[in-house]
Amino acid sequence: MQRVRIGGSEAVFLENDEKDVLGYAVWYTISRTLVHKDDLHAWFDKHGLSRFKPADPKHGDAFKRICSEYKEKKIDESADSETFLLLRPLETGLTRKVVLEKRKEGKKLSYNVVGEIAYDEKSRNVNYSLRTADPAVRDIVKEILDRFEREKDCYTDEHIRKILHRILDSCNRVKLKPSGGIYFVPLDDFYWIERFSKVVEEIKKIDPGNRTEIWYAPIVNTLR
């Protein structure tokens, strides 16, 4: 008998023998995820996926990702204008200009560079300088610094997606849709997918609200 895995549970049983199963259709969804590298590495060792352990997250990438989420924030609004904090990258390096921009009905009234925030690759720290006492600006910069410290050694959903693609590629997967998203994995390689599903369960244990899922269903030889 073979199972269909839906939403992390064994939901349907088929009457075919093991020898009739050619492989499994596999599909998944990866939601927003932050997992510390120590946790992910431990799970990969625990569930027999050591060969797929990724390199440590790059701190500079974490800095860029976090800054991208603050590239435009409204910090003040009055009857005649709105004030936005902008983070704008320089042409080279990992430096962001801190800008205050005033707008009225979508038109720019002023554009003032009030500081910089940068990741230093030598010290591996984030440094900043501000030429404004605006508490809203200082609060946002502090929030970025705090997030960087919490998230610099974490893998994101993008990392998890790339790892799964590596595993699928190693399983001789075949696309069942031209655009991808659903794959056929031969029976002999399917154990890698089962192991990865255990990692998904670990993620959901520490983050019950995480909606990452991997599903699979057997594909049976009906010609026998």
Overview of the molecule:
It is a single chain. The protein has helices at 37-46, 59-68, 135-151, 157-170, 191-206, and strands at 2-6, 9-14, 21-29, 34-36, 72-77, 82-89, 95-104, 107-120, 125-130, 154-156, 174-175, 182-186, 213-220. The chain is built from five helices and 13 strands. The chain folds into two domains: 2-54 and 155-220, no CATH class; 59-152, no CATH class. The protein has 224 residues and is an alpha+beta fold. The protein has a five-stranded antiparallel sheet, with helices on one face. β11 and β12 form a beta hairpin. α2 packs antiparallel against α3 (135-151). 30% of the residues lie in helices and 38% in strands. The relative contact order is 0.24.
SSE blueprint:
Elements (H helix, E strand, L loop, with lengths): L1 E5 L2 E6 L6 E9 L4 E3 H10 L12 H10 L3 E6 L4 E8 L5 E10 L2 E14 L4 E6 L4 H17 L2 E3 H14 L3 E2 L6 E5 L4 H16 L6 E8 L4
Antiparallel strand pairs: 1-2, 3-12, 3-13, 4-10, 5-6, 6-7, 7-8, 8-9, 11-12
Helix pairs in contact: 2-3
What is the number of beta strands?
13
Which stretches are poorly predicted, pLDDT < 50 over at least 5 residues?
Answer: 6-14
Number of domains: 2
Mean pLDDT: 91
Strand content: 35-45%
* CA-CA gap between termini: 16 Å
Taking Cα atoms only, what radius of gyration do you get, to the nearest Å?
A: 24 Å
Main sheet characteristics: 5 strands, antiparallel
Order of helices and strands: EEEEHHEEEEEHEHEEHE
Shape: elongated
- Structural class label: alpha+beta
Strand arrangement in the largest pleated sheet: 5-6-7-8-9
- Measured as a percent range, the helix fraction is 25-40%
Helix count from the secondary structure assignment:
5
